Amino acid sequence: MTYVFVFEVGLAALLLAIAVWTIVVRATFAAIVFFMIYGLLAAIVWVRLFAVDVALTEAAIGGGLTGMLMLGAAARLREIENSGEKPGLPMRLAAGMLCTLISAALGIVVFSLPDVAPTLAPMAKANLAQTGLGNPVAAVLFAYRAFDTLLEKVVLLLALVGVWSLAPDRVWGGVPGFRVYAQPSSILVFLAQLLPPIGIMIGVYMFWTGASYPGGAFQGGTVLAAMWLLVMIARLQPVPAISLRPLRLLLVVGPVIFIAIGLLGFVLADAFLAYPAGYSKPLIIVAEATLTLSIGVTLGLLVAGPPEWKTQQ
Amino acid sequence: MTMANFLFGAAAFVLAMVALGLFSVLRGPRDADRMLSAQLIGSGGVAVLLLLAVVTEMPSIVDVALMLALLAPFAAVAFLRDASSSQIKSPDATDHA
Amino acid sequence: MTLAFDIFTVVAVSAGSFFFMAGTVGLLRFPDTMTRLHALTKVDNLGLGLIVVGLLPRAEGLLGALKLLSVWIFVQLAGAIVSQLVARVARREGRHT
Amino acid sequence: MNSATLFGFCGAILVGLGLFGLITNPQLLRKILAFNVLGTGVFLLFGVIARRGAAAGLEGDPVPQALVITGIVVAFSATTMAVVLLLRLYQETGEATISPDDTSAGTDGSRS
């Protein structure tokens, strides 16, 4: 199938060209636009590698949240754009040589991978029925390597604590400095009223379908976060103060329930995060549902940034 | 030519159009033009994904396209927030002065 | 019957790809932001629209077809709203400079 | 050359490109972007290993795929953290760059 080959070579070449432009283009804004397109093409590459779960994650993060984060940061840094001088030519040549060497070494590694690739796919497939799930990636995330997933959620919360701790003392517990429209136009308000109900539905669908088909808690949570940010940016809802108790509760409910289910494993099964036979699917669904909510709130607050005001503006 | 080949050919063609669209991101000249190019390229990516979903008979790829389509307006909304806040603040400042 | 559907798919997807080309050429050749907006709408409405219509006979059941159509509607919605917002900024900037 | 090897080479080159941007661009925001390009390259290498592990009726080994999903989440949270740190640095010092002559600027106490 030569058409497939033409398509894939074109895709790879385009991805590389965009990466080059992201790095060398002079205007920061253009670099960010290239980076967003880079995420889009990366999602297509993941589809070609038959990793649709990864493609969904890349599309959700690259499509909505990264763009919002980077454009916001670039707008704040606009005054000092293009400041700072590039290192001299010898330095750049040396860096270029080093990077070429690293790329070449990795390329040789790719080329000399063993012909019979080591794989855990048969084991993942063989035990899939026991988990009650149909999606092997979800089984890895929530059954075989559930501990990793738990720690990943803790990392998200730690990152949020890190972001918050960068606020000056006088505004601790205050309102994040997420920039919203000064005067949202009627068309934006329309968008912010129309899209979130659909987005919430798709977020729930992502988490629900994730048990059997590609999708899952993280992809669903990312959609929820994007919808929340849209509502805040159009000033339909105020940006909440981070000391708000219900908000803090939402942040931790997912991980806490996940840990509780894990501890239950000591009693009902024989290990931490082990599910009692026959109950694994409902337990995983409960954990995923609450995690979707917590991930949504955490990601939204991560993009909203550290507190900048003591009270509502 | 089989149907699969035709659809892959169409996907490659749309991808080539996306590549051409990249030049308008480079050229600009204004940030608004760059944003428009990104929007157009996003539609191209959605079209490529839909073609791939049908040709490889993996319906879950449509979900990836759905995700991209749903989140398509977000970058532009963020961009126009930054464009409008700087635009609206400056007349404000002159009022106070 | 299958042949008729296949011909339909080939014609519609080809026409959609043509509008992708038209939109990209417009993006590169049109002189200012406002006319480039015009190019964008061709891609969102007709380019992606015709490709979606062409793929409908090959969709997996009614639900699959509905999903394809909803992808198109989302992209149209995003395109329409982003065009409005970008046009506002472009007009304001045009007046100020 | 099959598609897994093709995208594997692509990932290898992306790692080099990202590293080059990380070293040579003085602006910190651009360094963060470059680091994300590098990260995607590493993820792609993982994806190639997953694709090559296709067996038992699955099109890829789900274990590396799940690791990449976790990786993308962690990379995003690290990116937000880095961006916020950068904005705070700008608030404090009015600068957001690292230039080759930074060491001299630091020692003569022009910034605190």
Give me the secondary-structure topology.
The complex is a heterotetramer of chains A (313), B (97), C (97) and D (112).
Chain A: H1 2-24, H2 28-48, H3 52-76, H4 89-111, H5 121-126, H6 128-131, H7 136-144, H8 146-164, E1 175-176, H9 186-209, H10 217-233, H11 245-268, H12 280-304, E2 307-309
Antiparallel strand pairs in A: 1-2
Helix pairs in contact in A: 1-2, 2-3, 3-10, 7-8, 8-11, 8-12, 9-10, 9-12, 10-12, 11-12
Chain C: H1 2-29, H2 33-55, H3 61-96
Helix pairs in contact in C: 1-2, 2-3
Chain D: H1 3-24, H2 28-52, H3 62-93, H4 102-107
Helix pairs in contact in D: 1-2, 2-3
Overview of this protein structure:
The complex is a heterotetramer of chains A (313), B (97), C (97) and D (112). Chain A is mainly α and 313 residues long. Chain A folds into three domains: 1-77; 87-118; 125-313, no CATH class. Chain A contains twelve helices and two strands. Chain A has helices at 2-24, 28-48, 52-76, 89-111, 121-126, 128-131, 136-144, 146-164, 186-209, 217-233, 245-268, 280-304, and strands at 175-176, 307-309. Chain A has a two-stranded antiparallel ribbon with strand order 1-2. In chain A, helix 9 runs antiparallel to helix 12 (280-304). Chain B is mostly helical and 97 residues long. Chain B has one domain. The termini of chain B are far apart. With 97 residues, chain C is mainly α. Chain C is 90% helix and 0% strand. Chain C has three helices and no strands. The N and C termini of chain C lie far apart (60 Å). Chain D has a single domain (3-99), classed as Orthogonal Bundle (Helix Hairpins). Residues 103-112 of chain D have low confidence and may be disordered. Chains in contact: A-B, A-C, A-D, B-C. Chains A and D meet through helix 1, helix 2, helix 3, helix 4 and helix 5 of A and helix 1, helix 2 and helix 3 of D.
Brief rundown of the structure:
The complex is a heterotetramer of chains A (313), B (97), C (97) and D (112). Chain C is mainly alpha-helical.
